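Page 42, continued from yesterday. The earlier attempt failed because a stray header line got pasted into the input along with the sequence. Redoing it now with the clean sequence only.
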Amino acid sequence: MEEQEVQSSPRLGLPRRDEMKTPDDVSAMVRLKGLGWGAKRIVAELGCSKNTVKRWLRYGDWRPCVTPSRSNKLDGLSDWLAERFRRHRGNANVIRQGTGA
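This time it went through. Structure tokens are written below.
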């Protein structure tokens, strides 16, 4: 019986999300657009998704990724949590039970 070689996708098992582009990548996109290239042609040249190219062209220049600041249910409890963590030697299940969750 012949063995068949299976090629795996490089994205296999990875969460689907946009890759952060470098300032050089974005400036290349903007420069090519300025030369009259369309988004599809830029995609073919740079090897990224059409939506990524369109988004960076809409921005017009590179900017760092911004993560939103969100409040969570444990805000203000850091001292209490640290004390309980030390008391129970890192047993998060005991700490969770103490929160009433």
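Notes: Residues 23-34 form the longest helix (12 residues).
Reminder to self: strip header lines before submitting.
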